[in-house]
Each structure stands twice: as C-alpha cells, then as structure tokens.
C-alpha cells in the first residue's frame, strides 16, 4: 500500500528505511567519511537551472529511446551495478534485472552481486552490462569475463574508483556484517523489522554468486581489500580490453585527462562516476565535471554518467550537459528495499514520468534534441 502512495524517489527511500534492517539500509544509503560528496553530488543539480524554450509545439508521446553501449533502449537511464542486492530484498538482482527489462532499459550486474552471471543472463534478455572489479586472481577475472560473454552481456564496465574500500562510517558504527551478528542491537532491529527478517532468514543462502564466494561473516571491507588488486594500471587495462574484445568503459572517471587516455588505449566509452560518493570523500559532484569531460573527448565518444540523480530533471540536466545516458543506483535500490520487483518498477515509473515531463516542458521532445540543444538550456544559478 505504501508503495502505491509513493510520489517520488524520496518517498521510496523512507519506505525502504522503515522496512529494512538499519544496518542494511545504512549500507545502501551511506557515503564515505563525512558524506560531503554524497550531499554535494545531489545538491549540485539544484545549482543548475532550466532555461526552457516556449511554444516548441511538442506533441506527446515523447521519444525517450536511445542507445547505451550501442544497444537499443527505451529510456536514457538505467540501473547501475550494485553489490549484494539480496540483502535489501530476497528477490535481489533478479527483481532489478526484471524491472529493467520491463522498462526496456539497460541492466548493470555487479561483480559483487548475490545472483550469478549465468542466472541473470538467462533471465534478462534485454541489454546488459557486466561490472568488473579487478581481482588479484587473474584466472578468476578471465573466468568471470567468459561467463559474462556467454551470458549475453553486451558491454563491460571496469570499476576504477575502488582500489581501496571507501570509509563508510555508518557501516563501522553499525558493525555491519552479513548475516547480522547476534548482538543486542542487531537482534532488536531484526525484531523491529519482521518483514525484512522473515525474508532474510527464509530465502537462499547469501553468497557472492558471480565470483562463487561465500560471503565472509566478518567484514566486507576487509574481504574486498584482501581480494582486489590496487596495483592494476593502464597497461593491465589494455590487457583486459584485449581479453574482453567488445564495448567497454572505465567506471569512475572524474578527470578529462583520464577520459582521453582511456579512449586512446581502446575503451569505447567513458563512465563518469564517483561510485555514488561511497569511495574517495570530497571527490567532485559528477554533474560538475561532466561538461569538461565531454569537451575533452569530443562529441562522438559515448559518455555514461551517474551520481546523485533522484529526479527526472536531474537526468535531463545530465543529458543536456554531455551524457548520452544516466545511471541510477540508490533510487532503484530504495525501491527494491521498499518492495522488491514492484518497488524497482515504481522507481523506474517515477523517473520516467518525471523525465518525460521535464523534456516536454524544456522544449526537447527527443533525447537527440536534448543533447543538441542542452548546453544552451541549462545555466548555473547566478551565472
Ligand atoms: C554501488 N555502486 C557500485 N558500483 C560498482 O561498480 N560495483 C558495485 O558493486 C557497486 N555496489 C554498490 C552498492 C550500493 C549499495 C550502492 C548505492 C552503489 C555504485 C553504483 O554503481 C553507482 O555508481 C552509484 O550508485 C550512482 O550513484 P547514486 O545513483 O547511488 O547516487
């Protein structure tokens, strides 16, 4: 019922908060350190104003279709790869993938997903991208890439902002672990959130299915730090591109120089991101760096952007300022935690209606129009 009444993404967040175990909600919701990047990443959109065109003569329906990694999609936004979805709701990644397919958009599967590559490959027939963390074990990397190819993943995103695990202080304070420890605060929270607890206890064991690994009962941060290869560099990235041999983006770019270099070594696309402000604190708001990256790579290189998007107007601004498509992480995860598949669908519905309205009012009926005219329609406040 509450889901039906949700008017916007912020409402979904509140439902998620009331339904999920605090430790899990905070893992989903938090940024690193003092959460400065988290706040700025969202607030940066409010500094941008929409100088809409009048009497543009637009006849609905608008055309929101475009391409992402060369694959046809109905929407210019999509669900980013995110870890551990079964924590939020037992349907986990399957719900997120099915909702993306329902809306005809891209689905991003994380290396730290709790549903396997092959399972998602079989279930989601639409366009999908596999996100790769670079494991110390190269054979594992090769194995994962091969599975992604077989599973019909049309593109690879190499996450490059995760050489160390970010300092998520909410997780430390909550003593975050999966399964929850049997400490008094965890038990009280489990009793307070019976629907979540029932779901969590009564469904499949929780494993990192993509890499076939039991979830370490102790610390996710320590596990990731022990498995990931921070020494991975540009020439290793070239090796990886050779192994993959298909559309690929480095995910986590914030500097124009890095974007240029990535294209030079053979990436097809650039993914501007700061990992939802969960990694390096005071990394810039992605919407602020986007125009300089567009300028650096020129008009023809595909740019995907994510970070802080919670409104259709945010998506419109990102496309207007140089993104070809826009990823969302927390918005659909709040939907997932609020109500499984229905919740993710609701998140997509909300953003779609909002984007449709924003583009109509702005005077740009297609994604192409928005890209072409965008830079003249968005201006910085007081500018
Ligand atoms: C993420 N993100 C992420 N990125 C990635 O490359 N691999 C991963 O496993 C994860 N896991 C993950 C878990 C959770 C709970 C969140 C919120 C995010 C980052 C994600 O792909 C994306 O870059 C951000 O979420 C985008 O910012 P917003 O939309 O959350 O503000």
TrEMBL record:
Residues 1-380 form the FMN hydroxy acid dehydrogenase domain. It holds the Pfam family FMN_dh. GO terms for molecular function: FMN binding; oxidoreductase activity, acting on CH-OH group of donors. The active site is at 275 (proton acceptor). FMN binds at residues 81-83, 110, 131, 159, 251, 273. The keyword Oxidoreductase applies. The keyword Flavoprotein applies. Glyoxylate binds at residues 27, 133, 168, 275, 278. Its cofactor is FMN. InterPro entries: Aldolase_TIM, Alpha-hydoxy_acid_DH_FMN, FMN-dep_DH, FMN_HAD, FMN_hydac_DH_AS. Keywords: Flavoprotein, FMN, Oxidoreductase. It comes from the Eukaryota. Gene3D superfamilies: Aldolase class I. PANTHER family: 2-HYDROXYACID OXIDASE 2, S -2-HYDROXY-ACID OXIDASE-RELATED. Belongs to the FMN-dependent alpha-hydroxy acid dehydrogenase family. This is FMN hydroxy acid dehydrogenase domain-containing protein. The lineage of its organism: Eukaryota, Sar, Stramenopiles, Ochrophyta, Bacillariophyta.
């Amino acid at each position: 019922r509450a889901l039906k009444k949700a008017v916007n993404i912020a409402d979904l967040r509140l439902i998620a908060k009331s339904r999920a175990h605090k430790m899990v909600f905070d893992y989903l919701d938090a940024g690193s350190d003092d959460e400065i990047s988290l706040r700025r990443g969202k607030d940066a959109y409010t500094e941008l104003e929409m100088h809409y065109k009048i009497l543009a003569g637009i006849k609905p329906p608008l055309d929101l279709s475009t391409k992402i990694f060369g694959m046809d999609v109905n929407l210019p936004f999509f669900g980013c790869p995110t870890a551990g979805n079964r924590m939020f709701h037992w349907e986990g990644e399957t719900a997120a993938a099915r909702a993306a397919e329902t809306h005809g958009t891209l689905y991003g599967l994380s290396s730290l997903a709790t549903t396997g590559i092959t399972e998602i490959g079989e279930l989601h027939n639409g366009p999908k991208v596999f996100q790769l963390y670079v494991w110390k074990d190269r054979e594992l990397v090769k194995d994962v890439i091969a599975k992604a190819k077989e599973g019909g993943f049309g593109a690879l995103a190499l996450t490059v902002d995760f050489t160390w695990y970010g300092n998520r202080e909410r997780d430390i304070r909550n003593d975050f672990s999966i399964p929850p420890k049997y400490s008094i605060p965890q038990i009280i929270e489990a009793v307070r959130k019976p629907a979540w607890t029932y779901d969590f206890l009564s469904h499949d064991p929780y494993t990192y299915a993509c890499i076939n690994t039991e979830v370490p009962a102790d610390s996710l941060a320590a596990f990731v730090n022990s498995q990931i290869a921070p020494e991975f560099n540009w020439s290793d990235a070239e090796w990886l591109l050779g192994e993959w041999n298909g559309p690929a983006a480095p995910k986590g770019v914030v500097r124009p120089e890095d974007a240029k270099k990535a294209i030079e070594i053979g990436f097809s696309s650039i993914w501007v991101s700061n990992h939802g402000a969960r990694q390096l604190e005071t990394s810039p708001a992605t919407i602020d760096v986007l125009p300089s990256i567009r300028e650096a790579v020129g008009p023809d290189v595909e740019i995907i952007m994510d970070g802080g998007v919670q409104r259709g107007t945010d998506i419109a601004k990102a496309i207007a300022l140089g993104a070809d498509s826009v990823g969302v992480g927390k918005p659909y995860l709040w939907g997932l935690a609020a109500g499984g598949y229905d919740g993710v669908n609701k998140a997509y519905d909300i953003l779609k209606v909002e984007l449709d309205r924003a583009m109509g009012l702005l005077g740009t009926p297609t994604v192409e129009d928005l890209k072409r005219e965008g830079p003249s329609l968005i201006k910085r406040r007081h500018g």
